[in-house]
UniProtKB/TrEMBL annotation:
Belongs to the cytochrome b5 family. This is Cytochrome b5 heme-binding domain-containing protein. Signal peptide: none annotated. GO terms for cellular component: membrane. One of its GO terms (biological process) is lipid metabolic process. Gene3D superfamilies: Cytochrome b5-like heme/steroid binding domain. InterPro entries: Cyt_B5-like_heme/steroid-bd (IPR001199), Cyt_B5-like_heme/steroid_sf (IPR036400), Cyt_B5_heme-BS (IPR018506), FA_desaturase_dom (IPR005804), Fatty_acid_desaturase (IPR012171). The keyword Heme applies. One of its GO terms (molecular function) is oxidoreductase activity, acting on paired donors, with oxidation of a pair of donors resulting in the reduction of molecular oxygen to two molecules of water. Residues 1-73 form the Cytochrome b5 heme-binding domain. Keywords: Heme, Iron, Metal-binding. It comes from Meloidogyne enterolobii. The keyword Transport does not apply.
Length: 263
């Protein structure tokens, strides 16, 4: 069975900690992290699982109760180049982001190097929660917010808009940190803070953003999967961006801006 193209009715097969497990359709649909789990259908998700679920007792308990299944015959998923023009421009050896169907030896080397870096970061305490730091940052952004309101009240509209923009930018990054469960060890507190800073304070959906951002971290720089590198027509990060724009305005931007984006 080619699990990279298996239907949803067959369940979602993935490998974690050396064990192949099959997740039911119901579990996949109710997965708290959203549809990002689909990106590892038929793949080894060991490191991404630990990266996403560190500190979550519920996730590790759920992993323990999953039954092990036989190893499938096909275990690699590859993303091929979509455009024939890309094939003329891109060399797979130079742009490994195009195709991650790499030899097991090279993959293992990458994994071990990343694990070494991860352990070093942890040992130096760089990822330890710092609640007081985030209390100070939240106080600062709401002080800026009040200052922006005061400027607006005094009819300094331009300055108020600039300060308000800075405030929202800072709130956005604070919400980002809360969604990564960085401020405290208590995930419920982090979830509440992300809702407060995102939904309540800025009016955007935290859950929508988490689904999008989880996908970015799970498929970082994978073309056609990582939405964070799909910035055309304002920026072109891969050659295919130059050819997929259809509207007159998009093509105009490509002609006027893209040739100078390196500046």
């Amino acid at each position: 069975m080619d699990i990279s193209t298996s239907s949803e009715n067959e369940g979602l097969l993935m490998k974690i900690n050396g064990r192949w497990i099959c997740l039911s359709d119901e579990f996949v649909k109710s997965h708290p992290g959203g549809p990002v789990i689909e990106q590892y259908r038929g793949a080894d998700a060991t490191h991404i699982f630990h990266a996403f679920h560190e500190g979550s007792k519920k996730a590790y308990k759920q992993l323990e109760i999953q039954k092990e299944v036989n190893q499938p015959s096909t275990t690699l998923i590859s993303t091929k180049i979509n455009s024939s023009r890309d094939k003329e421009i891109i060399d797979d050896d130079d742009f490994v982001v195009i195709n991650y169907d790499i030899p097991p030896e090279k993959e293992m080397k990458i994994v071990l190097e990343f694990e070494e870096l991860r352990q070093k970061v942890h040992s130096e305490g760089l990822l330890l929660p710092k609640p007081l730091f985030y209390v100070r940052k939240i106080f600062e952004v709401f002080t800026l917010l009040l200052f922006a309101f005061w400027l607006q009240y005094k009819t300094f509209y331009i300055f108020s808009a600039l300060i308000l923009g800075l405030t929202w930018q800072q709130m956005g990054w604070l919400c980002h940190e809360c969604c990564h469960h960085q401020p405290t060890k208590n995930r419920r507190i982090n979830d509440f803070l992300s809702l407060f800073l995102g939904n309540f304070s800025q009016g955007f959906s935290r859950d929508w953003w988490k689904d999008k951002h989880n996908l970015h971290h799970a498929t970082t720089n994978i073309i056609s999967r990582d939405g964070d590198i799909d910035l055309a027509p304002l920026l072109a990060l891969v050659p295919d961006d130059l050819f997929k724009q259809k509207t007159l305005i998009s093509n105009l931007i490509l002609r006027l801006i893209i040739p100078y984006q390196y500046l």
